[in-house]
Specification:
This protein is an alpha/beta fold. It has seven helices and 13 strands. The mean pLDDT is 97. The chain binds S-adenosylmethionine.
Length: 260
């Protein structure tokens, strides 16, 4: 895996403490090797908080944190500091989009700048994609990205807490629910089920799993939650998305749910 991410024309590094005195030289060297990179950022805090954002500092090139990123035939305007975005999830976004059947209603509980929702809209014939985020800056970028990618007829951006939005406005509508926030996967599984049609559907459940049994505990947990909500659950697919910490993985479990 490469030691830095490139988002559009911005490279993001995590420079270790010992190399901080050389950060300017490192940034400039990176720009010489990767000529399309116009700005090099050093990430100065972990991704954290409700908005899943991080602090950065410009160490070389143009003083900016916003860029345009191309992925899966879509363009995304992203402010690296104000909203979460990871180019490392491109394969997962494409995988989900390829599963969508014509006419589906999708609810994305944690839509960020619109990555999963817009790729799904572009690559499938989904009828409607509700895209919720609680971060006003992410929401603003999502609205812009929906416009840039011309998917405003089907992607519906909603600013708010996914729990309230589902409870008050869009419960019981979705054929497919995305919950791309592994930190809150367990907590929001009931919300995902409430977002789904009473006749059932698919929930893309993201969470973390530890070796040696990476998937088992999460599948058991999801099965219990589904049963309490009156659904039978089938695991349609499970995969490790990326290594998160020692012996710990960010995982995806696709849950097929049918009423009992
Ligand atoms: C890990 S990011 C995922 C963003 C996007 N799906 C992507 O892959 O680029 C999680 C997003 O969930 C949002 N979020 C956190 N808590 C939320 C809540 N209770 N309701 C709605 N959105 C929330 C954050 O603001 C953040 O943008």
């Amino acid at each position: 895996m490469r030691a830095f991410d490139v988002v559009g024309d911005i490279a993001v590094l995590k420079i270790p403490e010992s190399l901080l005195p050389k950060k300017k030289i490192i940034g400039e060297a990176l720009m010489r090797v990767h000529s399309h990179v116009k700005t090099v950022l050093n990430q100065t805090s972990p991704v954290s908080g409700e908005f899943r954002t991080r602090s950065v500092e410009v160490i070389a090139g143009e003083p900016k944190t916003t860029t345009i990123y191309r992925e899966n035939g879509c363009l995304f305007k992203v402010d690296i500091e104000k909203a979460y975005f990871s180019p490392r999830l491109a394969t997962e976004r494409r995988r989900i989009a390829n599963l969508v059947r014509p006419g589906e209603v999708i609810t994305n509980l944690f839509a960020g700048v619109g990555g999963y929702s817009i790729v799904a809209a572009k690559k499938s014939q989904a009828r409607k994609i509700y895209s919720i985020d609680i971060n006003p800056a992410a929401f603003e970028s999502m609205v812009e990205n929906i416009r840039i990618n011309k998917v405003g007829d089907r992607v519906v951006p909603i600013l708010g807490d996914a729990r309230d939005v589902v409870n008050e406005r869009i419960g019981g509508e979705a054929d497919r629910v995305l919950m791309p926030l592994p930190e809150l996967g367990h907590e929001f599984l009931t919300v995902a089920i409430d977002a789904m049609k009473p006749t059932g559907g698919v929930v893309h459940y993201y969470t973390f799993g530890n070796e040696p049994d990476v998937f088992g505990p999460s599948i058991d947990f999801a099965g219990d939650v589904a049963a309490k909500k009156g659904f039978r659950m089938e695991v349609l697919e499970k995969r490790e998305i990326r290594s998160y910490a020692t012996r710990c993985y960010h995982i995806a479990v696709d849950l097929g749910l049918k009423p009992r």
